[in-house]
Amino acid sequence: MIWKQWYQRRVRVRNRCPSSRNQPEEAKNQPVKSELPVWSAERSITTEQLMRKRAEFWDTSPAYEGRKEIWDALKAAAEALETGNRDLAQAILDGASITLPSGFLSDCYDELGCRYVLPPYVLSRPTNIVTSKPEPSNEPVIPASPVTMAPDMYLKIRLSIGDATTDEKLPVNSLERIADVKERIRQNHNLGLSRIRMICCGKILNDKTAIKDAKIPKSFIVQVIVSTDLE
Question: Is the dihedral of CA 63, 69, 71, 76 positive or negative?
């Protein structure tokens, strides 16, 4: 199957961060293209099977090659591009200093010259996908702090919900955790069980991290991506 072929290729190649001079000379970097790969699985698969394969790829890739923070940025960019938010995907790539010689996420490099190859199943759905009842998420839920702290700063965010993007200044306390900020955004916009990710400088912010420890540059706009489970 297509997953097995990609797994074998990764084991065989075992990219060891070659020098940047190994990048294609004719095109050092191009803006990310909105076109997604069109592909078919060897057999029809369900959304749950596709999501499991994607999770397996993103979880194991850092152990084979490259840097974890780059893989995290590529994952966020791929998800933004799949939902049609090309500008957000480009902002994530720029923040992580990722270059695309062909303009496609399937083949890219970090600033050290390490090559990252993404299979089509993490970039788009196959043409022969079938729908089934979604499984409950296993993602741990980190409860918000029970005590509300007085705001001592403003956090600039760029909120992306589907195709809609808005800039906001959110009053927060520097001792609050990222999970607390997400919960406030969830309540302010009635987002229900939607998944929220906050990205700064190409890195996904950890829910347990306090705002003061997240090392967010002054006046930096934090990207906030809201997505629901794929159906």
Answer: positive
CB atoms within 10 A of CB 216: 19
CA angle, 91 as apex, 67 and 35 as ends, to 5°?
Answer: 90
- Distance CA(85)–CA(83), nearest Å, equals 6
Count Cβ atoms below 10 Å from residue 171 Cβ, excluding itself.
11
At residue 228, does pLDDT exceed 70?
no
Side-chain half-sphere exposure of 14, counting CA atoms within 13 A = 2
Separation of alpha carbons 45 and 52, rounded Å: 11
Structure-block tokens of residue 15: 């990219």
Structure token pair of residue 68 = 């974890």
Answer whether 99's CB lies under 8 Å from 109's CB: yes
Which amino acid, 8? Q
Residues 112-122, mean pLDDT to the nearest whole number? 93
Q: Write down the pLDDT at residue 12.
A: 44
* Rounded Cα gap, residues 29 and 178, in angstroms: 33
Q: Is pLDDT above 90 for 119?
A: yes
Confidence of residue 28 (pLDDT cuts 50, 70, 90): confident
pTM value? 0.54
The encoded tokens of residue 76 equal 């966020």
Beta strands, E only, the chain: 45-46, 107-109, 115-117, 129-130, 153-161, 164-172, 195-200, 203-204, 222-227
By DSSP bridging, strand 222-227 and strand 195-200 are antiparallel
Predicted confidence at residue 189, as pLDDT, reads 87
Amino acid sitting at position 215? K
Phi first, then psi, for residue 188 (nearest 5°) are -60, -30
